[in-house]
Design a protein that fits this description.
Layout lengths: L1 E5 L5 H13 L4 E5 L9 H6 L7 E4 L2 E4 L1 H11 L10 H16 L2 H6 L3 H4 L9 H17 L13 H14 L7 H11 L2 H7 L7
Helix pairs in contact: 1-3, 1-8, 1-10, 4-8, 7-8, 8-9
Length: about 200
């Protein structure tokens, strides 16, 4: 099995799939692409990745891009740690959380890029629109993590990683985050599969 990721190991979506593979205990190799140089737009990669993005997974003759599609595929085909809840409503909620984190909260993603997570913090204050997005994030997270849950659901799932990434864009930068949510993000960050990604050797920017 082969996983294509960005050369800086900074894509939160590549991270999500990497964590899923680690949790499943599936042996895999990684191939990096220099997105800044447009390597993902090469003819060779276009023949491999339908959307020409990372991550892309190659599993034998099957090739799949888009992170949540990949983690759903892994969970349906391979044994090991469950990446999604079994109960249909909880599974749908986990997928909803993933889709929301990938499509909303753009000001946070723009002003607290993944450089904050893997390279260095930003000293620029959050804009008004980013602060509004942060408040929306906190409200949703506090609703999902009611009753001091350790995870979003009864057991860990891959959506916990995605939510922790978004929260840690703020937590690791020193921005104000409610203590309960900061503690949750910290616990998720300490998971062995997550730390395996965090500890990858990164080239300088």
């Amino acid at each position: 099995m082969l996983l294509y990721v960005d050369a800086q190991y900074a894509s939160p979506y590549a991270m999500s799939v990497f964590v899923g593979l680690k949790e499943k205990g599936i042996p895999f190799d990684m191939q990096t692409l220099d997105l800044g140089a447009g390597a993902n737009r090469s003819a060779d990669y276009a023949a491999t990745s339908l959307t020409q993005r990372v991550p892309t997974l190659v599993d034998g003759d099957f090739r799949l891009s888009e992170s949540s599609a990949i983690t759903e595929y892994l969970d349906e085909v391979y044994s090991g740690t469950a990446l999604y809840p079994d109960e249909p409503e909880a599974k749908a909620r986990a997928r909803q959380i993933q889709a929301w984190l990938r499509s909303d909260l753009l000001p946070i993603r723009q002003e607290r890029t993944t450089e904050v997570l893997f390279y260095r913090p930003s000293d620029a204050p959050l804009s008004d629109v980013a602060q509004q997005a942060a408040q929306k994030l906190f409200k949703v997270a506090e609703t999902l993590l009611s009753q001091d849950r350790a995870h979003l659901f009864d057991a860990w799932c891959i959506a916990d990683v995605d939510l922790a990434v978004m929260l840690n864009r703020l937590v690791l930068n020193g921005d104000a985050v409610p203590a309960r949510l900061a503690d949750y993000a910290k616990r998720q960050w300490e998971r062995a599969s997550v730390q395996a990604w965090v500890d990858l050797p990164r080239p300088p920017l």
